[in-house]
Design goal:
It contains four helices and no strands. With 152 residues, the protein is an all-alpha fold.
Length: 152
């Protein structure tokens, strides 16, 4: 993520500086910055899932007992795996299609954008499976609420 963010800053700042100061520019900076941004977003999404920082509406689930929380968590993880399968399947098809399409300035295959989605779907599915196995083996589901939360 640091590499993507650094590349974006350097390319865009350098391009703006070159355009205004030297009346020239870096032709590939827009495409490479957009590519870095897409990868930054999907890398961040995987890290957020790993740390259980994704958006969750737990107002109702926090009122359940331990058994209800566990059942709800397992059901949500199974639905998440299904959605990630759909995401991986679609991104795989788009990646294959994108191999034959080139970006106009850099000449890179369009698949470099779609591969970010494929990576995210695979990594998130692995993390979700690990969490599901942990909970099925008797571990407690992760709770978003702190003990001081009045809704617990």
């Amino acid at each position: 993520m640091v590499v993507c963010l650094t590349a974006m800053v350097v390319l865009l700042f350098g391009n703006v500086t070159l355009r205004y100061v030297f009346n020239s520019g870096i032709n590939v900076s827009d495409e490479l910055s957009r590519l870095a941004f897409v990868w930054l977003i999907f890398l961040g999404a995987v890290l957020a899932l790993r740390d259980h920082q994704h958006i969750g509406v737990t107002m109702l689930v926090r009122r359940f007992g331990p058994g209800g929380r566990k059942a709800t968590h397992i059901a949500c993880q199974l639905l998440t795996l299904w959605v990630l399968w759909l995401m991986a399947d679609g991104s795989w098809k788009q990646t294959v299609i994108g191999l034959g399409t080139r970006l106009p300035v850099t000449g890179l295959p369009m698949a470099v954008f779609d591969a970010a989605v494929l990576y995210a779907a695979a990594a998130m599915a692995l993390l979700t499976l690990i969490d599901l196995v942990r909970v099925l083996a008797g571990g407690a589901p992760p709770l978003d609420a702190s003990p001081e939360d009045p809704l617990v």
